[in-house]
What we know:
Elements: E1 11-16, H1 32-45, E2 52-56, H2 61-74, E3 78-89, E4 95-97, H3 109-112, E5 114-115, H4 116-125, E6 130-140, E7 147-148
Parallel strand pairs: 1-2, 1-3, 3-6
Antiparallel strand pairs: 3-4, 4-5, 6-7
Amino acid sequence: MRSELAGPGARVLVIGTGTRAPGSALPDLPSVERSVREVADALAEVAGAADVRVVLDPADPRVAGQAISAAAAEATDVLVVYFVGHGLVSADNELYLATAASRDAVAGLEVDSLPFDTVRRRFGRAPRRRSWSCSTAATRDGPGTPSRP
């Protein structure tokens, strides 16, 4: 059986953020790079994905958002976005995906981290039949609480 990820209209994007800027209150996640590579390899080798792109340690939310927008615009069949890194929850209970620019679990989320709502909107604009968004993230119980693996 041919994998739907092997088709010319499928796009797979694996994003991982494990390194922070100096002075960040968020801990680095050293295993992110290996996890991103393993997920990308598995999607290509096991699931047959023909177009797997990797964005490791995006400098800021704009870089991550542009990668998602590009994959969504090109996907005509299947779109997969997989995130590995810190998931941060704002005081308004909104989910943000950390980037290398993320400095704090609460302060500056709106400018340093990618709002998950942005990811959701990009998916809504994609001209595709199916889409999946996956994440493996160290999450927070609420603003300012410690990360859990």
